[in-house]
Amino acid sequence: MLAAAGALVGGIAAYSYGKGAWPIWLAIAATAAIMGLLAYAIERLVLRHLVNQEGIILFMATLGIAYFLDGFGQTLWGSDIYKINLGLPKDPLFLFEGVFPGGLLVDPGELVAAAIAAGLVVVLAIFFQKTRVGRALRAVADDHAAAQSVGIPLNTIWLIVWTVSGLVALAAGLIWGAKLGVQFSISLIALKALPVLILGGFTSVPGAIVGGLIIGAGEKLSEVFLAPILVKQFDLAGGGIENWFAYMLALVFLLFRPQGLFGERIIERV
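The chain above was modelled as a monomer; its predicted structure follows.
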């Protein structure tokens, strides 16, 4: 939620700066600086004081900040939908026409978004696995006290974490803003990340990737194949399966495999 709210603010800011004479690259660079400063302020003023608190406290704090940014954004810019033109191709593509009747209709903008997301995953994976700072971030995430005992500065690490989060949120806001327009309902998209993490496992980055692919494909396939069955067998109106499929799948995993597909099972000894 916090990342989505930050992405929303970043997306509207990019529009506000770019609607004049600014080139889009300059607007994005300026917005990246704003998002970095915003993330720094949130970490410094709020989250730094909540280090070592219970997870539910951190969750409620970030949730409160998310709704504050959501409402404050409406105060600044109103509730209108803003369009962002990043120069992405808009004409649909028809692929595999020789394999499927009529071919597959593909939005080229979604292909670009998928490529950007894949690039971010690769860059962040290399950062966390191969760099000294990335390994320090993983150590802090695993055990604050142990990381601090070997000389890792927690305050600096938290600052890096939230700055990187703000920049990633900016990328998400720009991509979704170019696709749907920048609107305050974008923050609800972040909720889809929770079923993905539950399915893949909170402690596994590859699990999050696999979980996202499973849920994305499952939503589309269930809409195509499951909806007609429900309509025919139970005389339902159909539709809307994409809205609840991910959450029901996450509920099943919470009941029978709470650690997810690739997560570590945590055993507490008393």
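Strands lie at 93-95, 104-106.
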